[in-house]
Amino acid sequence: MHGYMGKILRINLTEGTVKTEPLDLEVGQKYLGSRGFGVKVMMDEVPANVDPLSEENKFIIATGALTGAPVPTSGRYMVITKSPLTGTIAIANSGGHWGPNFKATGHDAIIFEGKSEKPVYIYIEDDKVEIRDASHIWGKKISEVTEILEKEDGKVKVLSIGPAGEKLSPIAAVMNDMDRAAGRGGVGAVMGSKNLKAVVVKGSNKVSLFDEERTKKVSQEKVKILREDPVAGGGLPSYGSAVLVNIINESGVLPVKNFQGSYTDKADLISGETMTEKHLVKKSACYRCPIACGRVVKLADGTVVGGPEYETVWSYGADCDVYDYDAINEANLLCNEYGLDTISAGATIAAAMELYQRGYIKDEDIAEDGLSLNWGDAEAIVGWTKKMGLREGFGDRLAEGSYILAEAYGAPELSMTVKKQELPAYDPRGVQGHGITYAVNNRGGCHIKGYMISPEILGYPEKLDRLSLEGKAAYAKTFHDLTAVIDSIGVCVFSTFGLGLSDYVDMYNAVCGDIYDDETLLEAGERIWNLEKLFNLREGIDSTHDKLPKRLLEEPVVDGPTEGHVHHLDKLLPEYYEVRGWDEKGIPTEETLERLGLEEYKEYLGLAK
Q: Which of 124, 140, 236, 520 sits a CA distance of 20 to 30 A from 372?
């Protein structure tokens, strides 16, 4: 069984039992692994309409066929569950070194069921799997958990939740390697709801290769491409993902003050170039990654910590109108320690600042916290993040995310969300194709599951007019399907800065055997995307949820290079449904399901005959 390890762990936390099951290789190959595998398990095993924080929900950690294989950027794993934030499928991806080390234990995935009576963590060393007491690490921050478990268990890799996950914040993340996050959708809260604090791994197995020499040759070819690419081999390793700050701002699509603006003359203060010049200690890289976009930075007090990604720099920076890198670095550290999604956390503070600006939140609401909600308050973004992580004072309300917060004040339109998940760092009014990927995304507001910034801003694989509508729906569909492939095989989406579909076919076939060509591999991504859509439809998430915040559709950008523009979702959405093979209500047709080998799920559409 090449690429795949061939074994799945099923851990029932209610019963305290551990079972090992064989991986169905046909299913593994059809859904590629990781994201695709997890979505299929959720669809097949979790009943419709379960409460995401109930025992009935399942929590899946899965690797891809290439995770841990000797090919570039093969350090990814996925968390799959039902989201407590959105009610949709939750698919959260992370890098670092935990995923390959878990796969080295000889397993492809873990399916967690039920709920433990008391806090526990899981210890996995090859075939040895133990459910252990976690009372001594419950309530502790990520660095403390990691330090304690490394001291107890030796040379291990640690995945855990922080206090935010324990306290069931729907914007809580799952953390690994201290500062890597499976961040979005509240997956940390689902883990917390099961009283599951951590998963510790130590493995000695290697991924079996279909053709070792071919794999080595293919890997060398792809590494060379990435190192010679101007983004993967230049901008990202030199300045980290925050290299985008100036690029996105100069295009007029950097959201400012909760998307009230899309351009700022202060962007360079929080750019990747400024981080490198004034705060960078060194670069860091995930497993087998030639890009090394990770940052290690120095705080104002001299402490050395993991640095922020572009999205974090934006959410705590321009979105809150803060241009103080020391404060942004501190807020990022707190998110990592408490286990919070940095996009949702920063964007929720920004939404609260606008609610305060417009008089919805009163001074008396936050008086006891001793913090302001004024735009540009660097001290406040740090203070509110800590209170969110611990659910203290007004931070308890912020910890629910911006939609519930804004709705409680009678102003849900001030929550810049899709399907209740906070939008990331690109204003769709200035990138029309990227806007359609937001609206239809299966996990809610998301940039990374269909990154149209590549063609519309960066020119990959070709430069498109960012304000044009022509062909954007079809382009978005292709990007959605390709990203589903990349996630599911277990490599990093940043590898698309240089690599294309045929490169992923080369890597998969060298490791797993000659199974796919370009057309069929992309179709596997399309199959995964449609299965996620079916899951959401089953949960009542239909076309009425495929929308953007009212502001982005009706309020033209007020300044900068995108001044005067709105997003034209009304024109792009019907076209997207059509190229997807969905009907006018956004439901896959029977023909589409049959073409993709998803006939068994017709019942969820009322299509069974």
A: 140
Q: Give 378's pLDDT tier (boundaries 50, 70, 90).
A: very high
What is the reported pLDDT for 605?
80
pTM: predicted TM-score of the whole model, two decimal places? 0.98
| 3-class DSSP string for 423-451 | CCCCCHHHCHHHHHHHHHCCCCCCCCCCC
64 bridge partner residues: 33
pLDDT of residue 1: 87
Same domain for 404 and 479? no
Report the CATH number at residue 51: 3.60.9.10
Single-letter code of the amino acid located at 267: A
Which amino acid would we find at residue 316? Y
Q: Give the Cα separation of 54 and 12 in Å (integer).
A: 14
Q: Are 74 and 288 in contact (CB under 8 A)?
A: yes
Buried b (16+ CB within 10 A) or exposed e, 254-290: bbbbbbbbbbbeebebbbbebbbeebbeebbbbbbbb
From 421, 445, 467, give the residue that closes a domain: 421
User: Tell me, what's the pLDDT at 609?
Assistant: 37
Alpha-carbon span 586 to 577, nearest angstrom: 6
Bridge partners, residue 295, by sequence: 283
Instruction: Show Cβ contacts of residue 3 under 8 Å, excluding neighbours closer than 6 positions.
Output: 33, 65, 66, 69, 207, 208, 209, 210, 508, 511, 512, 513
Task: Point out which residues pair with 125 in neighbouring strands.
Answer: 128, 202
Please tell me the distance from the alpha carbon of residue 231 to that of residue 193, in angstroms, as a whole number. Answer: 40
**3-state SS record for 534-580:** HHHHHCCCCHHHCCCCHHHHHCCCCCHHHCCCCCCHHHHHHHHHHHH
pLDDT at 603 over 90: no
Mean pLDDT for the chain overall:
97
Cβ atoms of 296 and 169 closer than 8 Å? no
Q: What is the mean pLDDT of residues 146-169?
A: 97
Buried b (16+ CB within 10 A) or exposed e, 330-360: bbbbbbbbbbbbbbbbbbbbbbbbbbbbeeb
Measured in whole angstroms, the distance separating CA 605 from the mean position of its chain's CA atoms is 28
Quote the distance between the C-alpha of residue 76 and its chain's center.
Answer: 11
Which of 421, 442, 462 marks a domain boundary?
421
560 in any annotated domain: yes
Is the separation of the CB atoms in 141 and 188 below 8 Å? no
Beta-carbon contacts of 567 under 8 Å, excluding residues fewer than 6 positions away, are 428, 429, 432, 435, 548, 552, 553
Query: Alpha-carbon distance 59 to 172, whole Å?
Result: 14
Q: How far apart are CA 336 and CA 79, in angstroms?
A: 17
Sheet holding 294-298, edge to edge: 280-284, 294-298, 304-306
Instruction: Examine the pLDDT at 103 and tell me if it is beyond 80.
Output: yes
Choose among 101, 103, 10: nearest CA to 65: 103
**Residue 304 phi, psi (nearest 5):** -100, 125
- Residue 292 falls within a domain, yes or no? yes
433-467, pLDDT tens digit by residue? 999 999 999 999 999 999 999 999 999 999 999 99
- Give me the residues paired with residue 121 across strands: 132, 198
The answer to whether 394 and 372 have CB atoms below 8 angstroms apart is: no
